[in-house]
Amino acid sequence: MRGIFTKVTLGAFLAATTIVKAQKNDLGAWYMYFGNNKISKKLNFHNEIQYRNFDAVGDLEQLLIRTGIGYDLSENNNNILLGYGFILSQPYVNGEKTENIEHRIFQQYITKQKFGRFYLQHRYRLEERFLQDDFRMRFRYFLGLNIPINNKEMLPKTFYGSVYNEIFLHLNSPTFDRNRVYGALGYVINKNMRIEAGYMNQIQENRNRGQVQIGFYNNIPFTKE
C-alpha cells in the first residue's frame, strides 16, 4: 500500500510539473491539504492549507489557510460549520508583483447523499470578506461527485473519479464572481486518507484560466471512534 501511495503521489506531482512547464503562461498549479477531524461524536475540526502558484512551483499566486469548527446535525452528515480564513495574494499589476491580505469569516452547510456507487455532496457557503480596502459578502454553491472505479464503494485501495462545479456570487454588484469546473482521479489510501490529482478551469471576469491541482485529504479522528 505504501508503495502504491508513493507512486501515485510522485506520478501526480511529475505530471503537474510537466504540464505547467509546458504551458507556463496559461496554467497554474495548486497544492492543497484538507483536514476534517472528529473531536467528538458530533463536532469536527476543519483545517486547510492551499499553496497556489502561477507556475509549477515558486511563483506564489495565493496562500490560503482556513479553519473552523463544525457540528453534525445527523450521524456523519448534514454538517454546519463556522470558520475563519487567512488569504495572502500576490497578483501581478502592470507587470509588478503586489501583495494583498484578506481576512475571511464563513458559514457553511454540507449535506451528502449516496446513490448506488455515486457519492454526491452539496456545500452552501456564505463568506464575509475583509479586504484591505473593501468589505464584501459572497455566496458559494458547490456540487461534487465521487465515483469509485475498481470497487463499488470508497474502500481502501480504491481508485475513483471526482468532478465538481462551484459557482461564486457576490451579494452586491456585480453579482457573478466566478465559476469553477473540476475533474480528477483519486486514490483511497485508507479509511481516513485519500489523494487526488486533477484539472480545474476557472471562469472569472470573461477570463478562463486552468489549474493543475493535487489534493491530500486527512480525516483521522482526534478522538476514539
> How would you name the oligomeric state of the polypeptide chains in this document?
single chain
Strand line-up of the largest beta sheet: 1-2-3-4-7-8-9-10-11-12-13
- List the total number of helices: 1
Radius of gyration: 18 Å
Which range does the strand content fall in? Answer: over 45%
Helix content: under 10%
Average pLDDT, all residues:
90
| Amino-to-carboxy terminus distance | 23 Å
**Unreliable parts:** 4-25
Q: Quick one: overall form?
A: globular
How many individual β-strands? 13
Largest sheet: 11 strands, mixed, barrel
Structural class: mainly beta
Order of helices and strands: HEEEEEEEEEEEEE
How many domains, in number, for the residues?
1
Pfam families: DUF2490
Organism: Chryseobacterium arachidis
Protein name: Intein C-terminal splicing region
Q: How is this structure best summarized?
A:
With 225 residues, this protein is mainly β.
What brief labels describe this structure?
Intein C-terminal splicing region, DUF2490, single chain, 225 residues, mainly beta, two-stranded antiparallel ribbon, eleven-stranded mixed β-barrel
Characterization of this structure:
This protein has one helix and 13 strands; from the N terminus they run αβββββββββββββ. It has 225 residues and is mainly β.
Topology at a glance:
Layout: H1 2-22, E1 27-38, E2 43-53, E3 60-74, E4 77-89, E5 92-93, E6 96-97, E7 100-115, E8 118-130, E9 135-148, E10 158-170, E11 176-190, E12 193-204, E13 207-218
Parallel strand pairs: 1-13
Antiparallel strand pairs: 1-2, 2-3, 3-4, 4-7, 5-6, 7-8, 8-9, 9-10, 10-11, 11-12, 12-13
InterPro entries: DUF2490
Organism: Chryseobacterium arachidis
Protein name: Intein C-terminal splicing region
